[in-house]
Write a structure and sequence with these properties.
Layout: E1 10-13, E2 33-36, H1 40-46, H2 53-65, H3 70-80, H4 84-96, H5 101-115, H6 124-140, H7 150-156, H8 158-167, H9 171-181, H10 189-200, H11 208-219, H12 227-236, H13 240-247, H14 253-262, H15 266-276, H16 294-299, H17 312-319, H18 321-330, H19 334-344
Antiparallel strand pairs: 1-2
Organism: Urocynchramus pylzowi
GO molecular function: actin binding
Protein name: Vacuolar protein sorting-associated protein 16 homolog
Length: about 350
């Protein structure tokens, strides 16, 4: 039995010696072979004794490489019929549906040869096809094993293909594809690296220090990477100390606070909140700053962080006025204490 689809789809042929047919939704029977259905452009070009414009252009290019005058004869025949743009388009289209790289190259060389004799042929289609075939040939490699047809690749979209590579943990290939296609970092490399880092924190055979260092060396200051998200994943995997180490790489202090609160690291959380200068960080966390007991721990029995002390009054002015009064009383700062009482009267 044979199943046929549209251009670029597959026929399912039973293996030799088997008579059963496969239901299209049930998948192929054991031993079935998938044979791509040639696209119309490929059929036109490679048909025996074909006089299609693409076939003539392919022959012209081959004869040109042999330095034969027949190249001029084939080319003149195409141009006399004003079919050169169609011939170039046929060769480009057919290249997409060929699985053999040598055949792809032959067709693209013919298209490039034909373009030289056209004044205004848009190059975008040719460039895009070259890019698509580079990607397709990479994923069709036996070591990767994703034998998509050109039609399937286009319907799947590059984003979904990258997701499939990530699920297979083929991070290097996914990153190379992103760089080759020049995808925006948020859509491409940054997203892949974030997935890689979240996978890395799950590896139990490495110490917290080794994992944190490896992630930082790989990610650096890559745009769009949130170390706090990676740290959250580490904490969810039961690696609290690794999470804290990863948070140290997060350049935005305010982004560190929610996870520190979740981890019950109140002193660190308030220190980062003061450092960020964002007075709204306590909102929505379910952890009122005044209940932390941090006033004593930060500025009492424990030595305060010198860089945070000057910012603390400004922070408390918005969040905890009573704590600020205690601060001024302890420092005998009567002038600021008086100013605070005056402001409170309005």
């Amino acid at each position: 039995g044979i199943m046929e689809g549209g251009h670029g789809s597959c026929r399912v042929l039973p293996a030799p010696g088997r008579g059963a047919r496969c239901h299209p939704r049930a998948g192929a029977a054991p031993g079935a072979r998938f044979v791509p259905v040639p696209a119309e452009a490929s059929q036109e070009i490679f048909r025996i004794a074909s006089m299609a414009p693409g076939a003539l252009l392919l022959e012209a290019q081959k004869e040109y490489e042999k330095e034969s005058q027949k190249a001029d004869e084939y080319l003149r025949e195409i141009r006399e019929q004003q079919l050169l743009p169609e011939a170039v388009g046929q060769c480009i289209e057919a290249a997409g549906y060929e699985h053999e790289p040598d055949t792809q190259k032959s067709l693209l060389r013919a298209a490039s040869f034909g373009k030289c004799f056209l004044d205004k042929f848009p190059p975008e289609g040719f460039v895009r096809m070259c890019q698509d075939l580079r990607v397709l040939n990479a994923i069709r490699d036996y070591q990767i094993g994703i034998p998509l047809t050109f039609t399937q690749y286009k319907q799947l979209t590059i984003e979904v293909l990258l997701d499939r590579l990530v699920l297979r943990r083929l991070y290097p290939l996914a990153i190379r594809i992103c760089e080759f296609l020049r995808l925006p970092e948020m859509q491409g490399v940054s997203r892949i690296l974030a997935h890689w880092a979240c996978y890395k924190v799950q590896q139990k055979d490495k110490s917290d220090e080794e994992v944190a260092q490896a992630i930082n060396q790989k990610l650096g200051d890559t745009a769009g990477i949130s170390y706090s998200d990676i740290a959250t994943r580490a904490y969810d995997c039961g690696r609290a100390e690794l999470a804290i180490q990863l948070l140290e790489y997060e350049p935005r202090s305010g982004e560190q606070v929610p996870l520190l609160l979740k981890m019950k690291r109140s002193k660190l959380a308030l220190g980062k909140a003061i450092e960020s200068g964002d007075t709204d960080l306590g909102e929505g966390t379910g952890e009122p700053w005044g209940d932390f007991g941090l006033w004593g721990s930060l500025l009492g029995s424990c030595p305060p962080d010198p860089k945070n002390v000057p910012k603390f009054p400004q922070f408390c002015r918005h969040q905890e006025r009573e704590t600020l009064k205690d601060l001024y009383n302890q420092d005998d700062n009567h002038q600021e204490l008086g100013n605070l009482h005056v402001l409170g009267g309005y």
